[in-house]
Amino acid sequence: MYCVKSRSSNEEFIKKSRFIGVIMPCADEQSVLISLKQLYQEYLDASHIAYAYRIKTDSGIIYRFNDAGEPTGTAGKPIFQHLEGKELVNVLVAVIRYFGGVKLGAGGLTRAYGSAARQVIETAEISAYIEWVKTRLTVDYSQIQGLEYVLKKLDGQIVEKKFSEQVRLTVRVPADQLKTLLETLPGHG
Question: pTM, whole model, 2 decimals?
């Protein structure tokens, strides 16, 4: 699976209609809704804003697509198919259309929306998706510096610290590094 690092956009004209593809990272459905609201405000005068998204959750992948008033299956689904084909997660792709006066027909719309989605995905900075896990640790004060060093090497971080006789921590690491982290700590491996 893969994800995008930042927002990117691309524009093309097809038979006088203007198609603007926008791709952006979204961690959850709440951030998708916020991003869509921003797009609706940014492109107030657009004829259609069709979109698709795929979000990775603990219970699987959530996905939705919307034709935004275009004939059923001609806008949202072609966008979604490119997301799925590229194995992208935690991403929203929207295609904004300004109608240019020439009807494209169902096949033309499907190709246009699919093309806009494909092109904006190609312009995006894509990286491997990293699954993060949180774990709780209890360590002695003398172990903190060593733990911070190990976390840095594993691309992890301390999320929360509670000090008492020992230090109770919540740390976040890539899922494939959890075993390595636990093996480096006495009494945790």
Answer: 0.77
